[in-house]
Specification:
2 copies of one chain form a homodimer. The first copy, chain A, folds into 2 domains: 4-11 and 267-391, Aspartate Aminotransferase, domain 1 (Alpha-Beta Complex), CATH 3.90.1150; 16-263, 3-Layer(aba) Sandwich (Aspartate Aminotransferase, domain 2), CATH 3.40.640.10. With 398 residues, the first copy, chain A, is of the alpha/beta class. In chain A, helix 2 (38-58) runs parallel beside helix 8, helix 5 (130-136) packs parallel to helix 6 and helix 9 (316-325) crosses helix 12 (371-391). Helices cover 41% and strands 13% of the residues of chain A. Chain A has a 7-stranded mixed sheet, with helices on both faces. Chain A has a 3-stranded antiparallel sheet with strand order 9-10-12. The first copy, chain A, has helices spanning 16-22, 38-58, 71-86, 101-112, 130-136, 160-178, 199-202, 251-289, 316-325, 345-349, 354-357, 371-391; strands spanning 4-5, 65-68, 92-96, 116-120, 142-146, 183-187, 206-210, 221-225, 293-295, 306-311, 328-329, 360-364. Chains A and B meet through helix 1, helix 2, helix 3, helix 4 and helix 8 of A and helix 1, helix 2, helix 3, helix 4 and helix 8 of B.
Chain lengths: 398, 398
C-alpha cells in the first residue's frame, strides 16, 4: 500500500475542486459544444471559460489557446503541423537531444518524410546553449525551433527567453532581407502550472501544456499558437477550435484543465516555496546518507519538485520495487518509457555513463508532500541501497 | 429550457453507471498506467479491463484495441498512419463522398502529400455500391479502402460486409500474384454501441469507434487494428498502447468507454426495438402532417434512431431555433460542421437540391426518448413550419 507518493511527474492527484467542477459535464451538462441549442451552448460556455483560464495562466489571449488530448498531441500538433504548413519555405527543424519522445519521435517521423532535423547537444547539466541554437539556424531552410522549457526527467530549466531573443534577432535580420521568419515552439508540459510561464517573456510562437501535470485530469491539454502564426490542423475533420483542431471536445476534461489553471495561477507561489524546500532537503539528505550517489541536472536551476539521482552499482528498477514495498512510489525516469528498459536518452545526453544511468531514480514532489515523506525516504532508502549493493557483482565491498 | 432532447448523434447523456465508474479514476485512483508502482498498476488494470470490454462489444481481441481521444483521432490515425505505413506499396486510397469530415479532410491532406484518392459516389439513399469499390481498386496502387459503416447524417447503413468480401476476393487474387494486399477500414463511430458490430463478419482490418456515441464520455475512442496489420503511430512519443499510440492514457475516459461498451452490449437489443418504433412513428407522423417534407436516406436500412428530413421552402436553422424555444433540441446536420452554414456534403451527394438541403433537420433518438417526446414534436413542428413558410418568399401560399 503506497503511503508516500513521489511520482508527481507521472500523474498528479486532481484537486477536489477540479473534479467537482468536471462532474456536471459528465452528467446533466453533457451537450456537444457545437450544438446550436441550449444543451450545446451550456457546454460551449464552459469550454470558453476554460479557454480564458488557461490563457490567463500563461498570459496569452483566449483565442490563442487550442485544446488537445494532452501534451503528446500538443507536441505532435506543433511539430508536424508547423512543418507541413511551412514546408514551402524550408524543411529544416532545430530541436535538442533531450526533448520528450513526443518531440523526438515526431521529428524522426518528419525526417522520413524529407525534413532535416538538427538535434542540439546539451552540457552536463542539460542546458541547451542559445549560441548553439543561433549557429544551427540556416537561412532559407530553417522553419522551426523546438526546445523544451524544462526537462521532465532531470528538471533542468532551459534558457527559453534567451533562445527566444536569439530567434527574434535572427528574424529581424531575416525579415529585412526576405520577409521570412523562423518559428519557436517550447514543450512546456513540465513547467506550465508548476512555475510561472509567460509566453511573451519567453518569446515563443507555440507552447504545449497538459493538465495532468498540475492537478488536472489526464486527457486534456492545449497548444498555444500566437495570433498570426499560420498552422494547419493535425487532427483533420470538423470545424471545432476555429478549424484548427477537429473532434468533439472533451468538455469535462477541458473544464478540469481550466479549473486547475485557475487554482494553480493563484497557489503556485506558496506551494513552490514549500516544495523547493522539500526538494533540497531530499537532495542534501540523499547525498549525505548514500555514497556513490550523483544528482542529475543543475543543482538550483531545476523544477521545484524534481530530484533525479543515479545510484552507482545498482539498478533503478530494483530500488523502485523495494521502495514500493515500503509504501513509497517513485519512478526510474519518464513514465512514457518506463517499460522500455533502456538507459534514459536524457541521462546519456548529459554524459552520464550508460551503466550508471541504469541506476537512476526520479523523485517528483508536489504540493501534497510533507517533510515526513522526505524523512521517511531518507530513512528507508539507505538500507535498501546497501542490501542491493551487497547483491551486486559490480560493488566492491568496503 | 430543453425538455425533449433529440440530438443524440451530437452527444449522448452518459449512463449513471458509466460516470460512477469513472469518478474514482479522477480521484484516489489517479495513477499513470505506465508507472511501475502500485498507484500506476491500479490504473493499468482498469485500462486493460476497459480494453477487454471494448473488444467484446465488437467481437475483437483485446490486443486489437488501441485507445484514442475519440472518433476523429481514430479516423485520422487509420487513414494517415496506414497511408504512411504502406506508401512503399502504393499511394492510392478509395473512400466515399459521404464520409465524415475526419475522413474526407484527412484524405485531402494526404492528397497534398502526393497520395491519390478516389471518392466513390453514392445512390439516392446514400449507398456505396460494392461493385464500384471493386472497380476503383488498382493493382499495385491501392493500399486502403475506407467506407463508413453508417452515415452519421442520413443514417444509411452501408453494405460493409459485402464490400469486405469484395476486398477479400481481390486480395486472394492479388496475393497469389504478388503477395500484396489492400486494407479495409470502416468508420463505425455511428454504429458501434448502436447496432451490433462484429469485425469478423464485416471483414474489416481497421474500425473506428467513439464512446460519446453510446452513452459514454467525450474524449474517449478506439481504433481496432486486426492482428498482423502493420500500422505506424499517428501520435508519436512514448510507448503506450503497445507503441502504437503515444500519450498518457485518459484513464477515466477509457474506463467510461469500457463501462459503456459493457452495458450497451447487453441492453442494445431491447433499446433498439423501442427506438426503431419511435423513429418510424416520427417519420410517419412528419410525412403525414407536413407537406413538401422529404425523408433523407433509406426508409428502413438506417440507424435505429436516425430521422433526417428536408422541409421545403424554409431553413433548417430557423426550425431548429423555433423548436428550441419550444424546448426541443434537434440539429440541422452534423454537429461537427454546425457552424459552417453550408449545405451538407452528404445531402448534396445524395442528389438533394442544394436549396432543399438548406431545410434539413436531423432528429436523433436514443434510449431516453419516449413516445410522448415524439408526439410533442409532431404537435409542435407543423405550426412552426407553417409560420416559417408564411415568412418565406419562396413559398407559394396554397
Amino acid at each position: 500500500m503506497i503511503k508516500i507518493y513521489l511520482d508527481q511527474a507521472a500523474a498528479t492527484l486532481p484537486l477536489p475542486e477540479v473534479v467537482e467542477e468536471m462532474i456536471p459535464y459528465l452528467r446533466e451538462k453533457f451537450g456537444n459544444p457545437s450544438s446550436l441549442h441550449e444543451v450545446g451552448q451550456v457546454a460551449r460556455k464552459a469550454v470558453e471559460e476554460a479557454r480564458a483560464r488557461v490563457a490567463g495562466l500563461i498570459k496569452a489571449d483566449p483565442e490563442e489557446i487550442f485544446f488537445t488530448s494532452g501534451g503528446t498531441e500538443s507536441n505532435n500538433f506543433a511539430l508536424k503541423s508547423m512543418a507541413f504548413a511551412h514546408q514551402d519555405k524550408g524543411k529544416h527543424i532545430v530541436t535538442s537531444v533531450i526533448e520528450h519522445h513526443s518531440i523526438i519521435h515526431s521529428a524522426k517521423a518528419l525526417e522520413k518524410l524529407g525534413f532535416e532535423v538538427t538535434y542540439l547537444p546539451v552540457d552536463k547539466f542539460g542546458f541547451v546553449d542559445p549560441r548553439a541554437v543561433k549557429g544551427a539556424l540556416r537561412e532559407g531552410e530553417t522553419i522551426l525551433v523546438s526546445i523544451m522549457h524544462a526537462n521532465n526527467e532531470v528538471g533542468t530549466i532551459e534558457p527559453i527567453a534567451e533562445i527566444g531573443r536569439v530567434i527574434k534577432e535572427y528574424n529581424e535580420n531575416l525579415a529585412s532581407k526576405s520577409g521570412r521568419r523562423i518559428y519557436f515552439h517550447t514543450d512546456a508540459v513540465s513547467t506550465v502550472g508548476t512555475i510561472p510561464v509567460d509566453v511573451k517573456e519567453l518569446g515563443v510562437d507555440l507552447l504545449s501544456l497538459a493538465a495532468c501535470q498540475f492537478y488536472g485530469p489526464k486527457g486534456a491539454g492545449a497548444l498555444f499558437v500566437k495570433k498570426g502564426v499560420r498552422i494547419i490542423p493535425f487532427l483533420h475533420g470538423g470545424i471545432q477550435e476555429g478549424g484548427r483542431r477537429a473532434g468533439t471536445e472533451n468538455v469535462a476534461g477541458i473544464v478540469g484543465l481550466g479549473k486547475a489553471a485557475e487554482i494553480v495561477s493563484r497557489e503556485m507561489g506558496s506551494w513552490n516555496e514549500r516544495i523547493t524546500g522539500l526538494r533540497d532537503r531530499l537532495i542534501n539528505g540523499l547525498q549525505e546518507k548514500i555514497d556513490h550517489l550523483y544528482l542529475n541536472g543543475h543543482p538550483t536551476k531545476r523544477l521545484p519538485g524534481n530530484v533525479n539521482v543515479c545510484v552507482e552499482f545498482i539498478e533503478g528498477e530494483s530500488m523502485l520495487l523495494y521502495l514500493g514495498m515500503e509504501g513509497i512510489a517513485v519512478a526510474s525516469g519518464s513514465s512514457c518509457t518506463s517499460h522500455a528498459l533502456k538507459a534514459s536518452h536524457v541521462l546519456v545526453a548529459l554524459g552520464v555513463d550508460p551503466a550508471l544511468a541504469q541506476g537512476s531514480l526520479l523523485f517528483s514532489l508536489g504540493k501534497d508532500n510533507s517533510e515526513e515523506d522526505i524523512d521517511c525516504v531518507l530513512e528507508e532508502m539507505p538500507p535498501i541501497v546497501n542490501r542491493l549493493r551487497q547483491m551486486s557483482p559490480l560493488y566492491k565491498k568496503p
